[in-house]
Amino acid sequence: MSVEHLLAFVLAAVAVVVLVRWIANHTGLPAAAMLPVIGVGYALLPGPNISLDPDVVLTFVLPPLLYSAALDSSLLGIRRNLRTVVSLSVVLVLLTALLIGLGFAWFVTGATLAAGIAVGAAVAPPDPVAALAVGRKAGLPPRIVTLIQGEGLLNDATALTILSVAVAAAVGGDFSATSALGQFVIAAVGGVVVGMVVAYVVRILSRPISGDPLIANAVSLSTPFCAYLIGEEIHVSGVLAVVVAGLIVGHHRPRAASGAGRLQTSAVWRLVDFLLEGLVFLLIGQQLPAVVRGLAKYDTSTIVIAVSITVGVVLLLRPLWLVLTQSLPRSLHTWLGNDRSDKGEEPLTGREVVAMSWTGTRGVISLAAIFTIPLVTESGEPFPDRDLLLFCTFVVVLVTLVGQGLTFGPLVRALKLRADDNDQARVRNEARSASVEAALGALDDLEAEEHDDIHTQVIDTMRKQLRTRLTRYRGRLALLRKSDSDVTPVSPMYEAALHVRRVAIDAQRTELLRWRDSGQLPDEGLRVLEHELDLEERLLPDRPVRR
């Protein structure tokens, strides 16, 4: 494929991703399910196709996806629900991989335990993207959102570490449970250490570069690749290093980064996620016809048994595990994910267990992970049952994305498992009030220092602005505290203020454009002033004004 054809292919793929995202936003259909289907359709047409290289997927695709997810996760939230998160993201992943591996070794003709564990590790981690996209629209409580995020983040690292150990055993032709467990522990512990070191270095670098958003973004985009390469170079888990680095950096980012840097970094990573996930789904769907053609060498019964084992374990083990960990005696909860004596972590309710059971959609991580399986072993022979493993993973992803992805929203609404919007708004306004009071205290301290009359005037002006804001927040709090409903009450004054601010911003933009079009304001000046208005508008809520 020539450079021009490759560029045309990429542009066409981006256009498809954008179109599918627009359709998904207007229909509620999961984009993650539509993109592979489109990729399959393209592969059936005459024309050039692109084959996915396992090393490219593992080196260039997984690190940025995992790091971006880690940046947006809550380290404190994961710590508060650590036992449940560990239960789902470590123990359940290990059990899933082991059961599928044993199923392949016992019932699939010619399959090895290592190959079975490899596919089990690939399909073990749920992808939180689809579940959270639907769940947030349905109003999932913050605790369930944190559990989904924490599980989806740590289970990727666990699964990919298991996968690398299983693939190494399969490639070398020798699998020992004791040796594999030892390799897993070494890879996991080493990955955590590397991630912590990389995060520490990034935090040190962030201080002198925080004033330049472009440099800060360059460092941010480079971090996952550095963590991964260092981890792999010293033969520990590079993916776990990426996840740990992302969690720590994301936790300290509010202190280390400037406001402009955070705005830009957040926008850059959202774009990376959007394009990378979309393109990967398309490309992976494009590989399916070739995988299906590779199934010709297997008996139909072998394919059916392999798919049944993979899908059955994925669908049945998760709800069974959640019920088990919530119903066991209290003395066993320390080992299996949720010690009820721990006041910091409440057990899941019945409705929460049902909802969490249905958040097991598999996605881009599973598909990308299975394509990291090498084509040949050390002896030069084809990797055992590679096409069968790929096909099983495809089926699991499609079944969970379509089956669970399309029904998760109605299930959440039927369970009436909604976040308390009123309570969340109250906490946010209490925090806003506390921050303004801290600012007023800082002005009092500044006023006590030696300063001239100009400083006095500036301090008085700022104090008036802060007191006006504090009065508005306290009025909002009073309204929220009086409300008995879970739905955030509407304040006519607040809604009117939002409407007036938006009208004023729109009028300013229109006038600035008129100045630019008449030649009175150069484009460079327009961009500076427009950026100021954009930042002001960004402070307003995303929701439409209720009038």
Automatic annotation (TrEMBL):
The family database entries (InterPro entries) matched by this protein are listed as: Cation/H_exchanger_CPA1 (IPR018422), Cation/H_exchanger_CPA1_bac (IPR004705), Cation/H_exchanger_TM (IPR006153)
- Mind telling me which residue stretches traverse the membrane in this protein? 6-24, 31-50, 56-78, 85-107, 113-133, 153-172, 184-202, 236-253, 274-296, 302-324, 353-376, 388-408
GO biological process terms on file? regulation of intracellular pH; sodium ion import across plasma membrane
Q: What membrane topology does this protein have?
A: Multi-pass membrane protein
Task: Kindly list the GO molecular function terms attached to this UniProt entry.
Answer: potassium:proton antiporter activity; sodium:proton antiporter activity
Q: Which UniProt keywords apply?
A: Antiport, Cell membrane, Ion transport, Membrane, Sodium, Sodium transport, Transmembrane, Transmembrane helix, Transport
What's one Pfam family here? Na_H_Exchanger
Subcellular locations according to the entry: Cell membrane
Q: What does this protein do?
A: Na(+)/H(+) antiporter that extrudes sodium in exchange for external protons.
* Name of this chain's protein: Sodium/proton antiporter (CPA1 family)
Q: Which organism encodes this protein?
A: Actinoplanes lutulentus
